[in-house]
Amino acid sequence: MKIVRKLVDSVKPNFSKGAKFEKLHYFFEAFETFLFVPETTTKNGVHVRDAMDLKRTMFVVIIAMIPCLLFGIWNTGAQHYLAYGIESSFVENILFGLKKVLPIIIVSYVAGLSVEFAFSAIYKHPLSEGYLVTGLLIPLTMPASIPLWMVALGAIFCTLLGKEIFGGTGMNFMNPALLARAFMFFAFPAYMSGDIWTDLSPEGSQSVVDAFSGATNLVKFDKDYHLLPSAYQMFMGFEQGSIGETSVLACLIGAFILIVTGVGSWRIIVSVFLGGYLMGLLLNFLAPADNLLHAMHTPAHYHWLMGSFAFGAIFMATDPVSAAQTEKGKFIYGFFIGIIIVILRVFNPAYPEAVMLGILLLNVFAPIIDYFVIEQHIKSRIKNA
Known about the structure:
By secondary structure, the protein is an all-alpha fold. Helices cover 63% and strands 0% of the residues. It is built from 17 helices and no strands. The termini are far apart.
């Protein structure tokens, strides 16, 4: 790394104030801090110092998402060959998955970072590592068959209107990756609904495998939850769906990494699962006895296994910017996310994947939750004083 450090230091003066490439100063600074720990330090006032800065936080989240990404790549290939009735090896599944998934990731990063670079140059503010996570979250929430131009549009939308317009990283009140998914869902519902195609023909039209791909589990359970695969299959993720959301096991591995490192809030994760489970139990109790096929009869723990429940609870709801900040508020915030997800799934068949809307709704209410938690704490302290 000493050679790289010397090389960076040799070109650094060209990007300083008044130099030839002054306008690209923040681009260079972002690249430098990506490679090395920032050399700037606080000079006055009282500061809380911690080894976990923004760069380390973002990289931990990326590492936590790698199990979901790797499984999604394999599963994309496995579902493709299964649709055609072709036996495939592990390597063949991986190669096909890479061919489908890598372009989506590349387009997501290029489109989103282009917006961030443009805003940095225009408004002369530093670039942060925030989009490194958003740029990977967006592909993981997309079906493998999504057209690349749609991915670019979604990435631009969430970066421009979901973050930069509010002041950049740390100023957004909603999760940018979820805003991208929401935009894609309402703008292009045929590509983002519960009927996710396994593959597309070279000409871009729906191929012969459409009959196989049919409906995902979120569509099946609304008609008859008995049509769902086994709990083991859903837990492992051997099913169709968005690239990184099908495997609960891979999500739990990521949760373990986030919790152990202190990056993700275990309070939010646990409360989302708890809220969803208790609401599922309540609906089981209230389910109509004369209609055993009703979605209310779906076993409560199945909601954990279907769709993006685990992925949303672990990687989306725990966003430190848009989530609740107080300790008690995190429990309330996560609990209501779980409740709303199950309610929307059961009673709104037009939109069975309710994780996105549940989290975005509580993103809006997170400041209010924190406000009342703090007010209650202040009143309690005054009373006991």
